[in-house]
Amino acid sequence: MAPLSTIAPESPFDAAVAVSPGAEERLRDGLGRVITDLRVSITDRCNYKCVYCRTGNEGAQFTELPIESYLRMIRLFVGLGIDKVRLTGGEPLLRRGLLDMVRELATLRTAEDRPLDIALTTNGHLLEDLAQPLKDAGLSRITVSMDAVDSETFAAITRVPRSYERVLAGIRSAQRAGLGTVKVNCVLLRGFNDHQIEQFAQFSRNEGVIVRFIEFMPLEEDRSWRPETVIRMDELVVRLDAWRPLVELPPNSASETARRFTFDDGLGEIGIIAPVSRPFCGHCSRIRLTSDGKVRTCLFSQSDHDLNGRMVAGGTDAALRAYIRHIVMRKEARHHIGEADFEKPSRNMVHIGG
Ligand code: SAM
Question: In what helix (H) or strand (E) does residue 183 lie, and over which residues does it extend?
Answer without folding.
Answer: strand 183-188
